[in-house]
Amino acid sequence: MINFNGDxxxxxxxxxxxxxxxxxxxxxxxxxxxxxxxxxxxxEAHYFRLMASMRLMRMEIPMHWTPEFFQxxxxxxxxxxxxxxxxxxxxxxxRDWGGLYAPKxxxxxxxxxxxxxxxxxxxxxxxxxxxxxxxxxxVNNGLLEQLKSNNxxxxxxxxxxxxxxxxxSCLLLxxxxxxVEGISxxxxxxxxxxxxxxxxxxxxxxxxxxxVILEILAKHPDYIVTEASISxxxxxxxxxxxxxxxxxxxxxxxxxxxxxxxxxxxxxLCLKLNEHVARVGA
Length: 282
Known about the structure:
- The protein has 2 domains: 2-117, 2-Layer Sandwich (D-amino Acid Aminotransferase, Chain A, domain 1), CATH 3.30.470.10; 130-280, Alpha-Beta Barrel (D-amino Acid Aminotransferase, Chain A, domain 2).
- The strands form 3 sheets. Strands 7, 8, 9, 10, 11, 12, 13, 14, 15 and 16 form a 10-stranded mixed β-sheet that branches. A 4-stranded antiparallel β-sheet has the order 4-3-5-6. A two-stranded antiparallel sheet has the order 1-2.
- It is an alpha+beta fold.
- It has helices at residues 21-25, 43-56, 67-77, 153-164, 208-218, 232-235, 264-280; strands at 2-4, 7-9, 28-36, 39-40, 86-95, 108-117, 130-139, 169-174, 179-182, 185-191, 194-197, 224-227, 240-245, 249-253, 255-256, 259-260.
- Helix 5 crosses helix 7.
């Protein structure tokens, strides 16, 4: 028997969603995509990250899970929607029910969620974006932290802390007190024409947009780019801070504590990002 929000249910009445290892054990992955006119932006990078994550989590990958399969399923999900519109699509994958910490089930299930976005091109948000450090809990610096798994409790608590203290977001630390990332994006720090982003070994997410920005910067002769640890003391000495993810592109940080930041380099990179999308496509 199961008590679900006060209703007593028999096994035959229990929705399969409740027998979900992602819900019970955090045994799940997700991938967030931006779809423009049925086209998956950075499709190859998303697909290979998802496959690599499933292998690392020892999930059985169905033979038919090709890039074409996911494109077909996304098209099916959006079938009744505007074919020219832009959408945020989330693919959630979990190991099927069985066992506890050593499940016998080798099969996986998936769900696809879609919601409309206002615009297709990337633009900088004109609103202020104030952040603080979240110090209550720390991010581990291991391979699992690089995955988009549903083990995001530290990020959730940081989000609640930000909301309760009127911040727009928070920056997360690892156990070595190095700044790792934002709640929903990779961190980049600009000082003069030097740009730093934390290395994956510090525990940050292996973000698709992070990789795209690094690719763009590698071709830009005016910047010196490094993947190196960032200390909290460097934040107030920076000229700019910005966060990146596939949905928003580049989000400049306007203020951290008493330090206010410019956004010139972020604006320049946003232009180059849109040029990259137009040129490279999916």
